[in-house]
Amino acid sequence: MDKIAFMRLWDLYGKLLTPTQREITDLYFNLDLTVSEIAEQKGVSRQSVSECLALCKSQLSDYEDKLGHARLLEEGDLALSFMTGDVLAWADGFLKLHPEYAADIAHLTDIAERNYSAEVDAALNKLKD
User: Fold this and answer.
1) How far apart, in whole angstroms, are the C-alpha atoms of residue 24 and residue 42?
2) How many helical (H) and strand (E) elements, i.e. helices and strands, does the chain have?
3) For residue 30, what pLDDT is reported?
4) Domain ranges within the chain, ordered by starting residue
5) Pair 12, 70: CB distance under 8 Å
6) Average pLDDT per block of 10 residues along the chain, 129 residues long
7) Local structure of 114: helix, strand or coil
8) Under CATH, what is the fold of the domain 3-67?
C-alpha cells in the first residue's frame, strides 16, 4: 500500500486504531520519522514499530474491505469530476453556437469551476451543532 492510499484510509478509519497505533502511524506517515527514530522516541525496538505499522496497514485495509468508504468517496469524486468536465464542454460548445448567451455561459462556468470549500465547511459545522 503506498503512502497516499494509506493516508486516505488513515483519515477515514484512523480513529478505530488504538492510541498507540495512531501515534506511531502519525509519526511515520505524517511527520516522516523513520522506524529507528520512532523506536528511539518511544523506547521500543525497531521490530515492534515495524510490526505495528504492518498491523495498522492490514487493519485499515480490512476496514476498507468491509466498509468501503474510501471507494465510495473515490467514486463520488470521479463522478463529480466527469460531470463538471461534461458541463464545461457543453457550455463551451453552446457558447460557440450562441454567443449572445455569453454572460449566462460565463455564470454557468463560474459555478462549475467554483471552490465550494467554505460552504461545505459551514454546512458540516452546522450539522455538528
Assistant:
1) 9
2) 7, 0
3) 84
4) 3-67, 71-128
5) yes
6) 87 95 92 94 95 96 96 95 96 97 97 94 90
7) coil
8) Arc Repressor Mutant, subunit A (1.10.10)
